[in-house]
Design the sequence.
């Protein structure tokens, strides 16, 4: 991929019963394929499939259950969309390996910057040569809310992502494989998420492509006083505009159609995309 020309939109396919926003909406392979088709029709550039909820307080189901949820849908979506870029959202190397063998293109690891939860992940990603989304987080789903202590949230997120990147590079992963995700909502308060969004440019200056996943998150609900995740679309769109203005390359969202429009308009404003319309 050539980064920086336009913002890519990553659609979310949750294959879990307990995700915070849409858990349990997809309960079978046919539903997953239809959902993928809708997101592609709405303009998604790539899709992110996950079989393990990472919401605060979520229970970890283990490799076998994650694979049982993930692989049949992945195989079917790959067959229906042979050219589409597919990402697998997992922190288990065994799941990532099976998913890559079944047709996934990217690995999206929510625990990538927290000392690589699975020590085998670096070698797997190095051998596969695939893009790897390195997300900032602390602890796990049960403990992360207790770990949101920062003197300088932007500087500390940057530093922890740099240390994890160095670890991966030392393990044989190539620099061009790495994509940074600041981990909005993971071990961060509402105020810290807003500060991080204002300072995203400091992360992008390190030279790695930047993926931002604000979709429907609780910090948006806190600002809007909106308890319903599915009613946070316009707050999500505002955050996406800010992310693009600060250099984000990929937006991970549930509401693909409206965010594709948001990204196109923001690209015209901040990436010079309007030149193509003259």
Sequence:
């Amino acid at each position: 991929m050539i980064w920086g020309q336009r913002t890519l939109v990553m659609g979310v396919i949750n294959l879990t019963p307990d995700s915070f926003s849409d858990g349990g909406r997809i309960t079978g392979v046919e539903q997953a394929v239809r959902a993928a088709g809708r997101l592609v029709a709405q303009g998604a550039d790539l899709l992110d499939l996950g079989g393990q909820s990472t919401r605060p307080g979520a229970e970890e189901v283990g490799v076998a259950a994650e694979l049982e949820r993930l692989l049949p849908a992945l195989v079917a979506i790959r067959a229906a969309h042979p050219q589409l870029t597919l990402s697998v959202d997992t922190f288990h190397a065994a799941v990532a390996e099976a998913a890559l063998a079944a047709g996934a293109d990217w690995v999206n690891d929510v625990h990538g910057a927290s000392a690589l939860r699975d020590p085998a992940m670096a070698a797997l990603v190095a051998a596969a040569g695939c893009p790897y989304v390195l997300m900032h987080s602390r602890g796990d789903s049960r403990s992360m809310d207790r770990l949101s202590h920062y003197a300088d949230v932007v500087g500390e997120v940057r530093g922890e992502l740099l240390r994890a990147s160095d670890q991966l590079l030392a393990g044989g992963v190539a620099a061009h494989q790495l994509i940074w995700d600041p981990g909005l909502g993971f071990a961060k308060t509402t105020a810290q998420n807003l500060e991080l969004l204002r300072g995203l440019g400091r992360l992008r200056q390190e030279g790695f492509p930047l993926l931002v996943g604000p979709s429907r998150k609780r910090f948006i609900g806190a600002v809007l006083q909106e308890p319903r995740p599915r009613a946070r679309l316009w707050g999500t769109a505002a955050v996406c505009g800010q992310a693009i203005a600060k250099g984000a390359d990929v937006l991970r969202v549930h509401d693909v159609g409206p965010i594709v429009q948001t990204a196109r308009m923001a690209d015209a404003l901040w990436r010079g995309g309007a030149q193509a319309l003259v």
Remarks:
- The first helix runs from residue 29 to 41.
- The chain is about 40% helix and 15% strand.
- The first strand starts at residue 8 and ends at 14.
